[in-house]
Amino acid sequence: MKRREFIIKGVGAGLIGGSAVSLYPWQRLSARNLTDNYDMAAVLGGEPGDMFDRAITAMGGMKKYVKPNQSVVVKPNIGWDTTPEKAGCTNPDLVARIIEHCFAAGAKDVYVFDNTINEWTRCYKNSGIEGAARDAGAKIVTGKSQGHYHPVEIEKGKRLKTAMVHELVLESDVFINVPVLKTHGGSKVTVAMKNLMGVIWDRQWWHENDLHQCIADFCTGIQPDLNIVDAYRVVKRNGPRTNTVADVATMKYQIVSEDIVACDAAAVKLLDMDPSRIGHIRIGGEMGLGQTDLEQLRINRIKI
Predict the structure, then answer these.
(1) CA dihedral in degrees (161, 172, 99, 45; nearest 10)?
(2) What pLDDT shows up at residue 26?
(3) Which tens digits make up the pLDDT trace of 148-206?
(4) What are the chain's domains?
(5) CA distances from 42 to 19, 189, 263, 301 (A)
(6) Scanning 47, 104, 221, 255, which has its CA 20 to 30 A from the CA of 303?
(7) 284 in Cβ contact with 292 (< 8 Å)
(8) 142 pLDDT exceeds 50?
(9) 99 phi, psi to nearest 5 deg
(10) Residue 14 pLDDT grade (very low, low, confident, very high; cuts 50, 70, 90)
(11) What DSSP string runs through 95-138?
């Protein structure tokens, strides 16, 4: 395991650790250095849990990412007070199956949280994620308590230099990012890279200071171990939240990769968008944060 020292200002005892620490998980050994598994799994058809079973097997199994007695944070999109049919939040069945795989791999604890847009208790409940995650054995944590966030310097950021990051992300052994694919009025689309805005406190600053560059900058300092894109139901119009199922298409896709930029590049093609025309995806590729040319990847395309 590779580790990186973040420059933290005044980190106190967190949800997981009993005392302040200065070293946090950074990057794990790449799958391509350990096995001959795929760079990405793209699944079409089936139900969310079954799709993930197939995808994670193609990626080498959850035991490649989660080791016995490790703590895991699973970060879905729970930003909106809406029901699963309107697809504003990650599919709860997918979240539950990911948690089950984590425990099967030997995880000690699995935490689920998001810094929601709407009132957090309603988002957690009405999205179906709170109930599904609890039933699967996860611990539910609010993302709306400022005391859980700590300043981190983004050393390679061009516009974003610091960010207040939730301590679960800093202290957990494994960080799994589970966005839902949607259109978005501000950034055109929201997938894996933008979903990380739910682990910071001060996101309004990003919107006012070159949103696309800030999204990419943050990924130079914080990258998940695994990204799982929920494209089962997709808000194709009037995202990121819609009030009508007429804006939602049932597409039954799922994309899984360690490469956060590649996940976004693949996902936006499902919306007939060119990744090079989405600012943060293009910038992420230019900054070397991941691959935008999908022809360079080994993709296991699975149809159920």
Answers:
(1) 30
(2) 24
(3) 999 999 999 999 999 999 999 999 999 999 999 999 888 889 999 999 999 999 999 99
(4) 2-26+33-303 (3.40.50.11440)
(5) 40, 19, 10, 5
(6) 104
(7) yes
(8) yes
(9) -60, -45
(10) low
(11) HHHHHHHHHHTT-SEEEE----SS-HHHHHHHTSHHHHHHHTTP
Q: How big is the chain by its Cα radius of gyration, in Å? A: 17
Q: Read off the pLDDT of each residue in 276-300 and give the average, rounded to a whole number.
A: 97
Distances in Å between the Cα of 229 and the Cα atoms of 64, 142, 213 are 19, 22, 21
Q: What is the pLDDT of residue 29?
A: 29
Q: What is the DSSP letter of 46?
A: S
Whether the pLDDT of residue 44 is over 50: the answer is yes
- Does residue 162 contact residue 209 with C-beta atoms inside 8 Å? no
Whole-number average pLDDT of the chain: 89
pLDDT at 63 over 90: yes
Percent of the chain with pLDDT over 90: 84
Whole-number Å distance between alpha carbons of 221 and 152 = 9
Rounded to whole angstroms, what are the CA distances from 231 to 23, 47, 91, 183, 196?
34, 11, 9, 12, 17
Would you call 221 helix, strand, or coil by DSSP? helix
Strands 109-112 and 139-140: parallel
Tokens of 288: 């070397």
CA–CA separation, 199 and 258 (whole Å):
18
What Cα–Cα distance (Å) separates residue 142 from each residue in 20, 79, 89, 167? 20, 12, 16, 12
- The CA distance from 282 to 182, in Å, is 18
Q: What is the pTM of this model?
A: 0.90
What's the gap between Cα 282 and its chain centre? Answer: 18
Burial class (CB in 10 A: 0-12, 13-18, 19+), 279: middle
